[in-house]
Amino acid sequence: MADRPVPVKDMRLLDVKVGQLPNWLATRDYTPAGFVTSIRGGYDRFVKKYIDVKKPGIGGVAMMLTAYVVLSYMWSFDHIKHDRWRKYH
User: Fold this and answer.
1) Under a CB-based contact definition with an 8 Å cutoff, are residues 9 and 25 in contact?
2) What's the pLDDT band for 69 if we cut at 50, 70, 90?
3) Which residues contact 89 (CB under 8 A, 6 or more apart)?
4) Which residues have a Cβ under 8 Å from the Cβ of 23 and sit 6 or more positions away?
5) What is the model's pLDDT at position 26?
6) Which of 3, 11, 42, 67 has a CA-to-CA distance to 75 between 20 and 30 Å?
7) What is the pLDDT of residues 5-61, one digit of tens each?
8) How far apart are CA 83 and CA 66, in angstroms?
9) DSSP 58
10) Any transmembrane segments, and where (predicted)?
11) If you write DSSP's letter for every residue of 65-87 in order, what string do you get?
12) Cα–Cα distances in Å, from 31 out to 26, 28, 45, 58, 68?
């Protein structure tokens, strides 16, 4: 038996072909609740893959810490940039 074709709305983004991308984007939920649901799902997948494991390691925690450091730097970059060009004489 051949596998049945998966509907475009049930595919993951990595499985979508370039020609199917507009149809896939049209099936997404763009309401605020849809955004919250997708962010929560991504967070849950991250926790399941890197945090809640049988043999925990430093990888998941290191990724979260790195993301925090990068975001903090991006948020304060304007302040850092102005301090860099300031003359101290």
Assistant:
1) no
2) very high
3) none
4) 8
5) 92
6) 42
7) 888 888 888 888 999 999 989 998 899 999 999 999 999 988 888 878 787 778 878
8) 24
9) S
10) 57-77
11) HHHHHHHHHHHTHHHHHHHHH--
12) 13, 9, 21, 36, 27
- All residues at 6 or more sequence positions from 47 whose CB lies less than 8 Å from its CB, including other chains: 60
Number of alpha helices (DSSP H) and beta strands (DSSP E) in the chain: 4, 0
| 89 pLDDT above the threshold of 60 | no
Distances (CA, A) of 28 to 10, 24, 50, 84: 10, 7, 27, 43
- Per-residue burial over 27-41, b if 16 or more Cβ lie within 10 Å, else e, is eeeeeeeeeeeeeee
What DSSP state is assigned to residue 76?
T
State mean pLDDT over 67-86: 77
Cβ pair 52, 39 in contact under 8 A: no
